[in-house]
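Inverse folding, one chain.
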């Protein structure tokens, strides 16, 4: 599929809403990640789970344990959370993955909310909306 980054992000948000409609808040982060991975894959998108992100320092690739929760179509970073509230460290984590992989768009999704749209943050080149 050849969708724009915005179209892709809206499709993924729709799939996340389907997962949330089924389970609601309260599951572990890993459960939502697995379900969303399944839904994205089933929708026909290329998706990688726990994608390693090396840190490049002075031309040396260092494996520091960074892992993107989900990477869709090699261009959309998805960070899955199930927390009481999103905070700056969650945003920083998403921004780090975007910076390390040179990705323009990330979705920070907190499933531990009553209405999923309240838990979705689009992170664009360091700006959140």
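Residues assigned per position:
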């Amino acid at each position: 599929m050849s969708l724009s980054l915005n179209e892709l992000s809206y499709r993924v948000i729709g799939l996340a809403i389907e997962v949330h409609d089924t389970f609601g808040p309260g599951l572990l982060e890993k459960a939502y990640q697995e379900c969303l991975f399944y839904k994205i894959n089933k929708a026909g998108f290329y998706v990688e789970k726990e994608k390693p992100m090396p840190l490049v320092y002075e031309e040396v690739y260092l494996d520091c344990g960074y892992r993107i929760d989900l990477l869709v179509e090699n261009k959309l970073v998805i960070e899955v959370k199930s927390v009481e509230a999103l905070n700056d460290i969650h945003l920083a984590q998403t921004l780090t993955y975007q910076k390390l992989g040179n990705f323009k768009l990330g979705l920070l999704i907190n499933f531990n909310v009553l209405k999923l749209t309240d838990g979705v943050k689009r992170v664009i080149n360091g700006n959140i909306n």
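The helical segments are 5-23, 29-42, 88-101. The longest helix spans residues 5-23.
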